[in-house]
Amino acid sequence: MGNINNIPEKQSLPLNRKKSDLIVLSIIGAIVIIGIIFSVVFYFVTKPKEAQEKKAELSAIEQAQLKAKDKQIMNAISQIANQEADEYDSNNVYTDANGSGPSTLDKLLQGIKTAGSATASENMIILSANASEFSIHAQLMLDKTYYFCMDSTGFADYVSGSNDPITGPYCTEPELRYEDVYPTTTPYVTPNSTPIYTPRTTP
Hints:
Elements: H1 15-91, H2 104-115, H3 121-124, E1 125-127, E2 134-139, E3 146-151, E4 156-160, H4 178-181, E5 188-189, E6 195-197
Antiparallel strand pairs: 1-2, 2-3, 3-4, 5-6
Helix pairs in contact: 1-2
């Protein structure tokens, strides 16, 4: 039977090793805390930037969509002006439409509404009392203070106003009409000097 006094005593760790273990644990803890802080800061710094970039991207897409709608509106107005010219050639008068009938003019007016213009269909085409003059206009989408208008004098351009500025068979006030200043045989010229429409002689 062995001597109980011969059992080796439990050896305690050296003091220096305890200190080194504590230092290692402290360093690991500090690294973890710094990592957490860095992750939080990175999230709050990059998240607003990503949101801003996404917002700018959406804004650019929305603007492109509105520009496409404006082109659709202006194209329909141009087609209506051509239809009115054909009508005048055939009957010596222009014709009206309100967007609710089966005619080509009505369908073109419906297309303008489908594009999103806020102008009421029944207000887009305006004839003079004897139907010898007309204007066709609609509010645009990208900048709703602008309307695109064409009329029987040859005017084809933007008209601005906080409210609907077109109330008669001309896109501008009669005293500002092109034909009142220049001969009606001269093509209407836009500010960039591009002829776009030859005015008819007023009956």
